[in-house]
Amino acid sequence: MGAGGGDSGVNQRMAAGAEGQGVPVAPSNFLAQLSEQDARDLVAMGSVQHFPKGAAVFRAGDPGRNVYFLRKGRVKIYQLSPLGREVILWFCFSGEIFGLAEVARGGGRVVDAEACEASEVIAVAQDQFKSFLRSHPDAALLCMQVLSSRLRILGEVLVNLVSDDVNTRIAKLILRLSARYGTRIGKEIYLTIPLTHQEIADMVGTTRQTVTSALSQLKRQGVLSIDSHRIHIESEELLNELTLKQG
């Protein structure tokens, strides 16, 4: 396995445990799960592109010519509702792949990808990436896992929207993110990613004010705390109990 460091190992062990509890988890750092040589070969195929905060990597309707790997920064993948509201499907962080769906189905983009902060991506032409997958079956299998896991996440989110109240949806989102991006220290979990209240609202289908109120309640209950937009889960047990109340 390539670069990933100690936190990557912690995250992968946590992800395996969470998946056993029924929390869908997508593979996170795609490049780190390749061999070092395969990762170097793949990166060498691409061109480095830089995007300032708020810039579009691609928009819905654009041709799907490239697959992208995020080297630095953060990119959100979202769709616009008929009323023009953003619905965030997921975030991409360092090492993650996006723009992958069009490799399998062809056609244009159906989602938007936008830099949440200054970001550096590697763009690999779709034809080159397909050729790479033909000669690297492990990478092809990993792509299948990425697509499958994202589909599972979106399926659960859809069920949550119609069956759970907003507090439960927020609790489930935090657990899902902790499985992918959390570092466990003892019984507590520190999310390594920053999230604004508006971003959480756009992921669970509510307003920023509602998210602020729900998070304040979780703080008072001793479930979590927040520092610099990063969530610290102080009681995973209590958070899990909240997700089961409507189950």
Automatic annotation (TrEMBL):
Its keywords, alphabetically, are: DNA-binding, Transcription, Transcription regulation
- Please provide, alphabetically and separated by semicolons, the GO molecular function terms listed in this UniProt record: DNA binding; DNA-binding transcription factor activity
What the entry lists under InterPro entries is as follows: cNMP-bd_dom, cNMP-bd_dom_sf, Env_Response_Regulators, HTH_CRP, RmlC-like_jellyroll, WH-like_DNA-bd_sf, WH_DNA-bd_sf
Region Disordered: start-end pairs = 1-21
Which intervals hold domain Cyclic nucleotide-binding? 30-133
Q: Which GO terms describe its cellular component?
A: cytosol
HTH crp-type domain ranges (all copies): 164-237
Q: Which PANTHER family match?
A: CRP FAMILY TRANSCRIPTIONAL REGULATORY PROTEIN, HTH-TYPE TRANSCRIPTIONAL REGULATOR ARCR
Name assigned to this protein: Crp/Fnr family transcriptional regulator
The record lists the organism as Pelomicrobium methylotrophicum
